Amino acid sequence: MVNTVQLLRAMGVSVVVAGSAVGIDLAEQLAAQLGLAGADAKDSLLRHDRGAQAAALRQAGVPALHSVRTTSLAEALTWAENCSLPAYVLAPAAAAVPVEPVVCENDSQISAAWPGMRRQAALHSDFTQLVVAEHLPGRRYVVNSVTRTVDGQADHVVTDVWAETRTPNGRLARTDLLNRHQLLTRALHMYVLRALDALGVVCGPVTSRIAYADDREPVLISALAIPATSATDQALREATGHDRLADALNTVIPPAPAQLVPAPTGHRVVRVHLHPRHSGRIDPYAARILRGLPTVAAVSADLQAAAPAAPPAGTEVVLSSSDRDAIEADCRAIRALERECLYLPAADAPHCERPT
């Protein structure tokens, strides 16, 4: 660490931004050693750990999930028995672990899911702690924000808010960019501002996942202090005028006064999430049809391949338009392609009708 700090200081480094969740701790330590703007490295867990975040929110009087963070199954079962809730959610404490939380209705289901979740936590992070939390029904939302320090105070700005829609079995189906002027968006906005203060965020980007049930205030599921880049970035920039990476850097390096800010179009933006079937390999002919739909603004890399490709997790299509009906028509077309011919069967035989 000492040699790294000396090298960075000699290079005149003035900004340290974590590029991924595993770099949050290190980025905050480096910023502190270099005397740069950044959160207190002593509590960096608050920027990427579900259990630490819930405890900090409760301590600050901000609505939070009832939860326990532990490596002990016995402790988790005791907590669940004492709470006696209708359902629980089991998840890695590390918010960036790429595994879906599991909803459990009783002790037996928690016990059954525990070993696999511990393995996933150990595989993807240095933290093996798990979190058992209350399960809230209702929709989930993603709120992106950036924070800069102004006159010694943290100034949080919410850049975009998204609503998730899931299938009956819990799989993510689509994510819609919400109008910033809706009452729902404002309620989420106000809650996130309080949560960011409780989590000690003083500069940089944060992606917050929020649960919002009809009979409850919004509550934080998890937060990650990294720029959440994706295939939606260009469509988001055109719709809102915000750029993920530029916003992150502008929090510590003010943009030049003459820098042009793109005028937002106000377009609707929808991320359609795909779920491979059959062999999971994408038919390039069907993918070309998909890419040609009128409102398609971007697709993930596996949908651009010229040969059959096996998509990684996170395949998606980004739609953008001022015409709501056009977006909904393309959503239906995408689902029809998924059902009929987007994925090759096990023998890799093309099964879309092609022109002769």
UniProtKB/TrEMBL annotation:
Residues 54-253 form the ATP-grasp domain. InterPro entries: ATP-dep_AA_Ligase, ATP-grasp. It comes from the Bacteria. Keywords: ATP-binding, Ligase, Nucleotide-binding. The keyword ATP-binding applies. This is ATP-grasp domain-containing protein. It comes from Streptomyces tibetensis.
